[in-house]
Write a structure and sequence with these properties.
With 276 residues, this protein is α/β, with parallel strands linked by helices. The chain has a single domain, classed as Rossmann fold (3-Layer(aba) Sandwich). Strands 1-2-4-3-5-6-7-8 form an eight-stranded mixed β-sheet, sandwiched between helices. β5, α2 and β6 form a beta-alpha-beta unit. α3 runs antiparallel to α4. The longest helix has 16 residues. The two termini are 33 Å apart.
Length: 276
């Protein structure tokens, strides 16, 4: 990874590989770029994949402030500026998809399309009680037991390789306690992006039928609010769609990007599943 200084005052550690249509991958709160380890090898070499550690995590800078949803979106745009990328696809998982929506609303000219993987439409409100309890018990520095407590609130519904889970846990140890707390506060206090603007780019929404973190109404709300979007619901899949179904996410995302980048829009009808 290389460190890229941004105009927003932070340096981000970034993986940047491949040539062709650019896709910026945005990880969720409490994760690092390592959350895409199961996905990136499955995506075609015809894509340029830009995979940053966001502000405060992994090998990126860890300033004391700047953890609002707006800040996260402005970091993405500043990264595009620093890498001389005029426009790109954004693939965001969970709250990374919330950030992607923020960028698409605030800077539509910079976004070619979206792939929203288990992404919310609205996170406003109090932190869920179980998650608040887990965060309140966090040590400083954060321990593996702390991270496992959060993992217990956001369970994996489909078997995932133990090595992958261990890597995610190890990577999460790079996140300071203050960033865990500031990050979640920045998400739940932010105005949902789709309440302040519209998204008019090709959008693929991938959702787990057994998501017990976000209500299914949020998938429908995203699909209804983004004109022409495509919703694919994966059966026997929880909130961690990216972790549980990397092969299906890769296949569906690659096909959708290729179809829309070539000027032949993919089928935008909502559906209850996607090809195995």
């Amino acid at each position: 990874m290389r460190r890229v200084p941004l105009s927003t005052g932070v340096e981000l550690a970034v993986q940047d590989a491949g040539h062709g249509e650019t896709v910026v991958l945005l990880h969720a709160w409490g994760e690092t770029h390592r959350s895409f380890d199961g996905l990136t090898p499955l995506l075609p070499g015809s894509l340029r994949l830009v995979v940053p550690d966001q502000r405060g995590v992994g090998e990126s800078g860890k300033p004391a402030a700047g953890y609002s949803l707006r800040d996260a979106g402005e970091d993405v745009v500043a990264l595009l500026d620093a890498l001389a990328i005029d426009s790109c696809w954004l693939l965001g998982t969970s709250s990374g998809g919330y950030i992607a929506q923020q960028v698409a609303v605030a800077h539509p000219e910079r976004v070619s399309g979206l792939v929203l993987v288990g992404a919310p439409s609205d996170l406003q409100g109090p932190v869920p009680e179980a998650l608040a309890r887990a965060l309140a018990s966090f040590q400083d520095p954060v321990t593996r037991d702390d991270i496992r407590a959060v993992g217990g609130v956001i369970p994996v519904r489909t078997p995932v390789p133990e090595s992958f889970l261990e890597d995610q846990e190890t990577s999460a140890l790079s996140i300071p306690r203050t960033v865990w707390i500031a990050g979640i506060e920045g998400l739940v206090t932010a105005a949902p992006p789709l309440r302040s603007g519209t998204i008019a780019v090709p959008t693929l929404i991938l959702w787990g039928a057994d998501d017990d973190i976000l209500p299914p109404s949020q998938a429908q709300e995203l699909a209804a609010a983004i004109d022409g979007s495509r919703l694919a619901i994966y059966q026997e899949t929880g909130h961690l769609v990216l972790w549980e179904r990397p092969e299906r996410v890769a296949a569906d995302a690659a096909a959708f990007i290729a179809a829309n980048a070539s000027g032949h829009p993919a089928d935008t009808r909502q559906e209850k599943g996607s090809p195995p």
